[in-house]
Amino acid sequence: MSIPTETRQWILLNQPTALPTLSGPSPTFALTTAPLNPSTENQLLVQTLYLSNDPGQRGWISPTIDPARLYITPIPLNTPMNARGLCKILHSRAPGWETGDLVLGYPGWKEYAVLDAAKCERIPELEGLDVGVTQFLGALGLTGGMTAWYGIHEVAKARPGDAVVVSGAAGATGSMVVQIAKHVIGCRRVVGIAGGAEKCKWVTEYLGADACVDYKSAGFVEDLVRETDGFVEVYFDNVGGEILDLMLTRVKCYGRVAACGAVAEYNKDGKTGYGIRNWFEIISNRIEVRGFISFDFLGKGAEEATREMVRAVREGKIKVDAGNETVVETEFEGVPATWMKLFEGGNRGKLITKLV
Q1: Among 95, 117, 195, 288, which residue has the least CB neighbours within 10 Å?
Q2: Strands 251-259 and 232-237
Q3: Are strands 85-92 and 43-52 parallel, antiparallel or unpaired?
């Protein structure tokens, strides 16, 4: 193919105060066409093949977040939506990077992008393992497996004798936390929280959790209390809101909470968010609550986590296959709609956009 000189892209048109909207008088995003700047020395011209969909992206476009308090530069209005992706090099001006190579980087919601080679990563070669490349956006990627590994080991400090509860257990990070806690660390009991009977069945039968509680069930509170009888040492939180507040009453004295996400709160403003009502539980029971993000784990820590996860895959302790990802074939016009499935419970494992 000829070298492209322009690209279609999705830009942030309006900052949403609630659930992003894709149509109507004030859509969150707009599809535009923009010229591509010619690549310069040590840059790569790439074609986006797959896009990572992550709940945390919602915070990047919020009008209520102070930029000085955000771990990444917020997305300005009328600029492309940011996203991690798996790309193919169309033209390289960087030594050691060849046309046709696959790379991981941040192309954003663009068909084509010019990336600094220094900010891109190669797809690791895993000899003897049949692992699809999309797994490096999810189960073996930064915002899936590596976040799970770091969070359950270094933040929650889970040990074999611990009982662990994982919310968002059917999601990209939560599904990996369940497997790592149960099959790698060997925690004595692992309980998932997920939405719907089908997802809960998947969490127990496929991932290997001891139990999974359906937060959509009318008996959710009673079920959770029953499955956490005697309380738990660790809670890995991916959702925030009411479930976090409830779990503060189920964590043991001196227990640990790893605060990884708040998907239940991302589409609410400061007036409608649930907040925390059981704060005294933290004080009374000396509970440690620590927030973290995937970027905390870049560099040496990420490399070590990848090696350990690959070892666990080889040993059959962690499943990394088509069963733990949801890949949605999407025409470029549908990129925002696929991303919105994150907030509809439309994925099992990692949600990935495959551009077609």
Answers
A1: 95
A2: parallel
A3: antiparallel
* CA–CA dist 334, 160 (Å, integer): 44
End-to-end CA distance of the chain, in Å?
Answer: 16
Residues in the chain: 356
Query: What pLDDT tens digit does each residue of the chain (356 aa) get?
Result: 789 999 999 999 999 999 999 999 999 999 999 999 999 999 999 999 999 999 999 999 999 889 999 999 999 999 999 999 999 999 999 999 999 999 999 999 999 999 999 999 999 888 888 889 999 999 999 989 999 999 999 999 999 999 999 999 999 999 999 999 999 999 999 999 999 999 999 999 999 999 999 999 999 999 999 999 999 999 999 999 999 999 999 999 999 999 999 999 888 866 667 889 999 999 999 999 999 998 887 766 777 888 899 999 999 999 999 999 999 999 999 999 999 999 998 899 999 999 99
Distance in angstroms (rounded) separating the CA atoms of residues 202 and 189: 17
35 CB-near residues (< 8 Å, 6+ apart): 5, 6
Please state, in angstroms and rounded to a whole number, the distance separating the CA atoms of residues 140 and 119.
Answer: 18
Cα–Cα distance, 164 to 159 (Å, whole number) = 10
* 166 contact partners, CB below 8 Å, separation of at least 6: 174, 177, 178, 181, 190, 191, 192, 193, 209, 235, 236, 238
Question: Residue 47, CB half-sphere, CA atoms under 13 Å: how many?
Answer: 17
